[in-house]
C-alpha cells in the first residue's frame, strides 16, 4: 500500500539522479578526455594488422608527442625524429599490453651491437612510446618509456641506465635519477634478465626493420 506516494516519488527521483551521474562517470573514456588511472592499466587490445596499427599510430603520434613534451624531459625531446627500429607498432605485454614503438637517438647507433654483448655508449637513449586500442577501435596515448645510458659510475645499481616513465598526461611518473625513483625500480628488475645484452631486450624479430 502506498501511504506516501510523494515520498516514494522523491526517493525514485533521487535514485534516478544518482544513477545518471553513476553512468555519466562510467569508465567509457572519450579519446580526448581519457587519462590513465593505473599506469599499467590493461585494455583489451584490438587484434590489429601491422598496417592498421601503423595507420592508427600515424593518426595519434602528433598528439602523443605533444603530451609527452608537457613533462619537459630534455632527453626525449623530438624522439619521433630519431631512428625507429620497428616496422610497425607491436603489442608489448611487458609494457601494459599496449602497442609500442622503439626509437633510438644517434648515439644508440643501430642498437643491434647489444645482441653481440657490446654495451651502449654513455648518452645513448632509447624511447618506447605506447598507445592502447580498444575493441571499438578507439585509440589512446599511453606512457613513454625511456632508458638513458649515463656516464660510468653514475648509477651503479642499474648498470648506469636511467629509467624514466612519462605518462600520457605529460607527467613524470618516475625517474630513477630524480623524482619518484622508487616507482620505477621495477623497470631494471625486469630488464636485468638481459644483462648480457646491456639490459636491452631489443625489438621482437617479426618487427625488426629490414637492415637488422
Ligand atoms: C616485465 C618486464 C619489463 C618491465 C617491468 C619493463 N620492461 Fe622495458 N622491455 C621489456 C621487454 C621484453 C622489452 C622488449 C620487447 C618489447 O618491446 O616489449 C623492453 C623494451 C624496453 C625499451 C626498449 C629498449 C630495449 O630493451 O630493447 C625501453 C626503453 C624500455 N623497455 C623501458 C622500460 C621502462 C622505463 C620501464 C619501467 C617504467 C620498463 N621498461 C619496464 C621488459 C620490461
**What's the CATH architecture name?**
3-Layer(bba) Sandwich
Count the helices. How many? Answer: 3
What percentage of the residues does DSSP assign to strands (E)?
15-25%
The CATH topology turns out to be Chalcone isomerase
Low-confidence stretches are: 13-43
Give the overall average pLDDT.
82
Give the CA-CA distance, first to last residue.
79 Å
Order of helices and strands: HHEEEEEEEEH
CATH class: Alpha Beta
Outline type: globular
Category from helices, strands and their pairing: alpha+beta
Please provide the count of β strands: 8
Taken together, the total number of domains comes to: 1
Rg, nearest Å: 22 Å
Small molecules bound = heme C
Question: What would you say this structure looks like, in words?
Answer:
There is one protein chain. The protein is α+β, with helices and mostly antiparallel strands. It has a single domain, classed as Chalcone isomerase. It is built from 3 helices and 8 strands. It has helices at about 5-25, 50-70, 185-190, and strands spanning about 85, 90, 100-105, 125-135, 140, 145-150, 160-165, 170-175. Strands 1, 2, 3, 4, 5, 6, 7 and 8 form an 8-stranded antiparallel β-sheet that branches. The radius of gyration is 22 Å and the shape is globular. It starts with a helix and ends in a 21-residue tail after the last helix. Heme C binds next to β3, β4, β6, β7 and α3.
Amino acid at each position: 500500500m502506498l501511504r506516501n506516494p510523494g515520498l516514494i516519488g522523491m526517493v525514485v527521483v533521487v535514485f534516478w539522479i544518482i544513477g545518471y551521474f553513476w553512468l555519466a562517470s562510467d569508465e567509457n573514456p572519450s579519446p580526448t578526455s581519457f587519462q590513465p588511472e593505473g599506469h599499467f592499466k590493461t585494455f583489451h587490445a584490438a587484434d590489429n594488422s601491422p598496417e592498421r596499427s601503423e595507420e592508427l599510430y600515424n593518426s595519434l603520434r602528433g598528439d602523443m608527442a605533444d603530451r609527452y613534451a608537457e613533462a619537459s624531459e630534455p632527453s626525449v625531446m623530438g624522439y619521433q625524429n630519431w631512428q625507429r627500429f620497428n616496422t610497425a607498432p607491436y603489442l608489448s605485454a611487458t609494457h601494459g599490453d599496449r602497442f609500442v614503438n622503439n626509437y633510438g637517438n644517434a648515439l644508440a647507433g643501430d642498437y643491434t651491437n647489444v645482441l653481440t654483448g657490446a654495451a651502449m655508449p654513455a648518452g645513448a637513449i632509447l624511447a618506447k612510446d605506447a598507445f592502447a586500442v580498444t575493441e571499438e577501435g578507439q585509440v589512446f596515448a599511453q606512457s613513454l618509456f625511456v632508458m638513458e645510458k649515463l656516464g660510468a659510475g653514475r648509477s651503479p645499481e642499474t648498470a648506469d641506465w636511467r629509467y624514466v616513465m612519462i605518462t600520457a598526461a605529460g607527467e613524470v611518473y618516475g625517474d630513477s635519477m630524480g623524482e619518484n625513483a622508487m616507482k620505477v625500480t621495477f623497470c631494471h628488475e625486469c630488464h636485468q634478465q638481459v644483462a648480457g645484452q646491456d639490459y636491452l631486450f631489443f625489438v621482437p624479430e617479426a618487427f625488426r626493420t629490414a637492415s637488422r
